[in-house]
Fold these 3 entries.
Entry 1:
Amino acid sequence: MIRLLLCLVIALAAEAQQAERMAVEATQPGVLWRAPNDIGMENWRCGSAGCDHAPAPPYHFVKEDMEGTFPKLSIQDAKGRAWSVKFGGKVIPESFSSRFVAALGYVVEPSYYVGSGKLDEVSQLRRARNMVKPDGTFHHARFQLRDNQSLQFLKDHSWSLADNPFRGSHEFAGLRVAMMLLSNWDAKDARDGQQQANTAVFRGPAGEMLYSFFDWGSTLGRWGKLMRRTRSDCAGFAEDSPALITGVRENVVEWGYSGKHEDDVRSGITVEDLRWLAPYLSRITDEQIRTGLTASGATPRQTTCWAEGLESRIHAVLAVAQNGQYAR
Amino acid sequence: MNLRPPAILLAVPICCAQAQSFAPQCSRRTAEDYVAITRTERVADYVRSLTGLNAFLYAGALAGSDQARDRPHEWGQGHLGYERRFGNDWATHIIDTNLEHGFALGLGEDNRYFASSSHNVSMRLGYAITSPLLARHANGSRSVSKSVLLGVAGAALIAQIWQPRSTSTFGNFGRSIGMTLAFRAGLDVFREFAPRALGAFVQ
């Protein structure tokens, strides 16, 4: 009987807590963007959350995650923090893009590049068996922090590029410009289903609802549909760069970008939107970009190639912001 | 003898080449840029292999070469003879593509071409010539491509079904394998050394 009463009390308490949380969510305005601090060289070198939060070896293998397209593991580091470790074509794009997007003030999960390391007690790997040797050593991995204290992923929440509280705002336009600057063709959102969506809502430390485009792995390549798009392809990225902006018509910027939900990504961005973004974009230096790319696993050749492409894209955006028109 | 179709096919990439300039670091996707192939990239590669210009080039050039040598003589000359030869080579290519991509998926092999990262001409030439026989794996390592060998040999074997008497021989089977691999080596040499705008036509 006492046990039953105890269960009842716990259930009621949990329900009250849930109701309180939902009430907070209902009153909390959503946040898409926050004025970025000048994140400094350390974050470009180590990762978007700084060197203090970088993964600390030794790494303890927890399980293999079979969701998604790429081999992925759940691990724990020496400080007891949980990480999602990914291998393959998304490593450089996610490691670099998270730095870039955070520098512009958008919410991303901290991602770090780990050139090589060793996992303890690895067993029964399936998709990741080619990436992790039987003794646990691995190379070229992206570690993404799973920290429920600072960013709690809300499983039942998502949002779409076509329907969200930020439509028409400079902040939302800025996010879409960032997507095009990085050639992010995989703009799946709530319309593609909860499992597929690359848009998410996190609960921040103060209970605020943080709207985020969280998957930046399909970047730094050629934009486009199935037959054209690539990721982690510096030659393709450079090839597309001159076509980022194709014109300005009646104060609305026209873009060469294509990809998933392309109309929702590229349409309705005005010169004023670019003027709003310009101060934050112009703050990112050539040195920061190159440091970020190298620290994300790019070779010297790739760093030069990606950096030149990205800088030319940034210059094109800043030129339109300044002149109000596009000159090829 | 009618060599017009292959001549037209060969002329397309040359006349349509655009004068584009890329920084030397960005001029091509090299082996250094290799990332493991995904399922959707496999689908795109499969569709490209079936419908891409290189498939038409291969069938067109081989049919032209056989037409010039009247091989097999049972298929005659003129438009009809060329069409039969082109159809034979095209059908063999379709079978080869299906077998090769199926085996590659099962074996986890990636047969796409990535340009050499080397600056040495002879190294690049050797890399391009051996590329058709080597596959990449998810971790970037390379080994002999079982899917290519099985695909090419399987298609050559199946094509024996419709060969006329003069070419329905073990020698022709071997010749078909050799021609396919030689064409691919030639194509990879072209991809390696041709300007990017031209090379893109046969990616």
Note: The two ends of chain A are 79 Å apart (CA to CA).
Entry 2:
Amino acid sequence: MDATLRQRIDELVGSSPVFVFMKGTKLMPQCGFSNNVVQILHATGVPFETFDVLSDMEIRQGIKDYSEWPTIPQVYVNGEFIGGSDILIEMYNNGELKEKLTVALAS
Amino acid sequence: MVQPDEVMAAIRRALPDAAVEVEDLTGGGDHLQVKVVSQAFAGLNRVKQHQLVYGALRSELASEAIHALAVQTSLPS
């Protein structure tokens, strides 16, 4: 992928310990899967930032190449891609998410 | 849209030992849920497990023939 685009995505991912690429915004998610992720992160109480891929076609496609993951939403913790909606739900239910976020925000 | 048996066949081409269940969540053929059980997932984290399944369905996802795909992966018990 294009180096400038990769750098843009690197900067977004690095802009917050918890960063989400989603369809729509925190207040108005435009897709049920994106909404799941927002609700779960709200439930954990951690601060997080989001980017609306519907506002930027280059990022919308680029983020899929960046993570080699074909779907949106995508959740990054300290720069590491941890999964989409299904994985977040599973990690929330088994307690792994809370543990990961606690460690991430402490560092 | 794609037929559930095409999805199953594509996954089994990539993961020949896999037990695959496909559910069409809306009846429209483009919101699918798949459950895949395969020994190929051993030692992989969940992202990597799901990437194997996505990889098998790359063209269907890229063309948006499948719009939404819920994935559950596990090892044979």
Note: The interface with chain B takes residues 33, 68-71, 81-87, 90 of chain A (CB under 8 Å).
Entry 3:
Amino acid sequence: MSVTDPAVATPKRGKVRAGRPSAVWALPAVLFFTFFAIVPMALAFYLSFTKWDGLGDPKPVGLANWQKLLDDPRLTQSLTLTVLLTAASWAFQTVVALLLGVWAAGRQRNRAVLSAIFFVPFLLSSTAISVLFYALLDPNFGIIQKDTLGSSSGAFLAIVFVGGWQFIPFHTLIYQGGARQIPQVLYQAAAIDGAGRYRQFFSITLPQLRHTITTSTVLIVVGSLTYFETVLILTKGGPGTDTAILPYLMYEAGFKTYDFGYASAIASALVLAATGLSLLLVRLTGFGGMRSTREGM
Amino acid sequence: MESNRGRSTGTGGAIGTGGTAFSRRWVLGAGASALLTTGLSACGSGEGSGGGGGTITAFVYGDDAVKVQQAAVDRFNKSAASKTAKGKVKLEKIPGSDYLPKLRTAMGSPSAPDVFFNWGGGSIKAYQAADKVVDLTDIIENDPVLKNGFLPSVLAAGDLKGRHYGIPMRGMQPVILFYNKSVFAEQKLQPPTTWDELLDINTKLKKAKITPFALGGSDVWPELMWLEYLVDRIGGPEVFKRIQDGDAEGWGDPAVLKAAEMVKELIDDGAFGSKFTSVSYVNGGAPAVFAKGKAAMHLMGSWEYSTQLGKFPDFAKSNLGWAAFPEIEDGVGDVRNVVGNPTNYWSINPRTQNKDAAIAFLKDCASEAYAKDLVALGDVPTTSNAAALLSSAPNPEYAKFQYDMVEQAPAFTLSWDQALGDELGTKMHTEIGKLFTGKSSPSQFVSACKGLK
């Protein structure tokens, strides 16, 4: 052991230099998250045990709002719709984004140009996108001129489509990055062994993208659970109540009937569900263990 | 719901979190609740309700008509009354679709307005219960300008339990049966005066491949207007009065079921076309269908005229016709009865630091200058001096029609959603939406309404 080795001679300073940065650097993000996520969440959780119409002071009512949530006849429909929307969004966005992402990972110039164009919808605000599609779907003056938003399935599919149109570019980007990380040697070896394009996709690309799929899935699931603006602008939960997903139910309880206690109960339930689901997904896929997809390489 | 929706230009309330995509997903994902707590935490911009010094703030529904209120503020701020009360007024115009939630959240915060626009009746019930609105009854009684300034029926229409909480500040907004004159002329039709005539007209129009009625079904409140008139004509104004007074069994009145059945017949008959559930009034869809002659009639609030004047001026000036809602055979309701919104009101927040200035400002609504501004905009004021001013309206004939309609009406039923207040009104909207989209039958509609609370 050499005494002159700086890393050993001054282990403390060496550790600072070579190890993790100080916690202070995380402060802005922590503060941001605290004030805009943790504090509002805690307040909503508190409000869910009160009755508050926004004017007077919140009055504690115990578990009344949670009981009301369980007894609400609209909860079943709303929950079903939320699950359906999440599943449909996942299927639509994952399939399209995965294929597009892998395609965009190629280094050809035309792919680079097209990928940049594909990314544009994601840069627009969801409100602007919804207003745009609302105009396009107008039954009398739009491009389709059908009663799309007036039928239950039409309205639901429109929401799935508009959501996909907006968020597929983002997931494409994730998959593009993921696909570019896959070592070329794998493909070269496969080619020597005679694997065709499809075999390469299913035996190399897809397994190698496992963690990328998890990341993207968690984002889609959590995003769909809290999907809101598009529903508000496109359908207002209609026709009837056929697209009134949980976040819309929450909005209606809060900002239409001014029952902020009940709305907070729905919001808290959503937070719990979203957190639980993400944890479950991470567990099930082994993503949490951070095991490498490139073992043995 | 809000009468002035007709004029609002905004679409749905945009609650954008902005920021980058990643953070939006996380902010939404982690705390959808943040939306709710804006009401609790994000509204305090730090100002006291007095607004500093003697200046008072007034919240108003920000549509085209707001220039009348702006003119009133400018006039007041230069007036002697403003100097006596040592205060000026600052007007905050809030885009229409955001008005209600914004007012609600602001009233619970330190940046509450001193004076605020509302619809009277049920719309301020919660404010009255929370002691957020000044009882103006005695002030009006003791002030001849206010006491004699307005049509008594309109002043009373915004009451809660016989007490006045607001001063009328906009035009009257009865619901009127509008028709497209050129379509009617081409088909050789006259506006219907009885229900049978209306059905007969429908048959003829459908033969000519014209939709009888434009209807902005996706907004729901235009659908409500049909039920309001049908119930009134079938059972008289007492039917809804009972419901308004808190008796949910009132929904069980045979008139409500009959009205719902007639609505269903109209829908099944194609009276509103096949796509009305996705047509909106607010975004201009229904007015355009009507103005372009794709639909021949439109049951709508009186603001339809100014909406058409803005979007299709030629149509509004030469081809827009108007009539009262027809009589229904065997119905007990008077054909002169009117539904709609009597007007809008200014109310005062008790926490204001300059109540004198607020009251002095409200008095301006009774002035001739104020009424003239309203008339110039195409509105019919609810002031006692209005009748004499109507000849200078952009369309004197239309103004006179409205004024007479309201003045001669034995009963003026406030829009149901306004009368019931936000909570019940919203739930009723849901049920009406289900009725019109065929998700519930007329009898299911009635039993669902009975269960509303």
Note: Chain A has one domain: 63-285.
